[in-house]
Design a protein that fits this description.
By secondary structure, the protein is α+β, with helices and mostly antiparallel strands. It is built from 2 helices and 8 strands. A hairpin with a 2-residue loop joins β3 and β4.
Length: 115
Amino acid sequence: CGMATIAFGRSKDEADLWNKCPDGHLCKNGVMSSSGEAVKKCAAGYMCQNNLKMSCAEARAVPVNAGYGDIHAGSFCPEGSTGLKFCPQGSYCPSPDMTVELVCPEGNFCPMKTE
């Protein structure tokens, strides 16, 4: 079995899947411990998948640098993100580090993806 896993009559591969670090989180050694103390939510401004962490601002720059434009403008990454999320209607997301979603000021209209 992988570290901190229990596989009752199952294969090691199945046990590793059961105890895989959940997306949106980072885990010590890539697996959940039996007590969960090594599991942390991905910090705001970052996305986490397969126990890897990437800055959302860096991810936003990829299509820009490839010549596709800023297709992720008006996106943000709250704590526990697995990827960029569009700022919802009624909110705006002005933060360059992509950590903040703010309520649209009274008297204004903020469509989806407002920066």
